[in-house]
Write a structure and sequence with these properties.
Length: 174
């Protein structure tokens, strides 16, 4: 039985030169709730899938979202193939590789520490700080600069991000 749990909120965390960063605890708790009732333990439970986003950030999903995407793509292919199972399977392979081929598995430890892949960090322009931004069944990881440009029309989000950056820097000085 699936448990309804969405990613939400915004948090700024530091990223070191090797790409190590901590996933917000609220996001880890959401993943745990989303996997409630599934027989997953250890690394299998603590793996997310990341891909570059057309928005200029890193898109992050868990395995429950991937299963939903695969189901949606199969239904789409079956409708297009109009009952031809061989054609539906061929369409599925083509579409699923285009949709999921850019995802990379990233594991995190009990404290949420993980390494953002260099290629994804470069693509998203992430250095020094990362903005974690939850929205439904996925979350995004942004560079503060790209986040500010994308959400310039939502002043409250920009203030939240700036407050998160200031809090993080204040904690680092203490």
């Amino acid at each position: 039985m699936a448990v309804f749990a969405d990613f939400s909120g915004l948090q700024v965390n530091g990223v070191d030169q090797k790409g190590r960063v901590s996933m917000p605890s609220a996001f880890r708790a959401t993943i745990e709730r989303r996997f409630a009732g599934h027989d997953l333990h250890g690394e299998a439970l603590r793996t997310v899938k990341m891909s570059p986003s057309d928005l200029g950030c890193i898109e992050v999903v868990d395995a429950t979202t991937i299963a939903e995407v695969k189901s949606d793509v199969m239904a789409e292919c079956e409708a297009e193939a109009e009952g031809d199972k061989v054609k539906a399977k061929a369409l599925f392979q083509k579409k699923i590789f285009r949709r999921l081929g850019l995802f990379t598995d990233v594991t995190y430890d009990e404290a949420g520490r993980m390494v953002l892949p260099q290629l994804l960090r470069d693509e998203a322009g992430i250095q020094g700080e990362a903005v974690f931004f939850g929205g439904g069944d996925s979350f995004q990881i942004w560079s503060p600069e790209k986040f500010a440009a994308e959400y310039a029309d939502v002043p409250m989000l920009i203030r939240q991000m700036e407050q998160g950056k200031a809090s993080r820097r204040g904690a680092a000085k203490a």
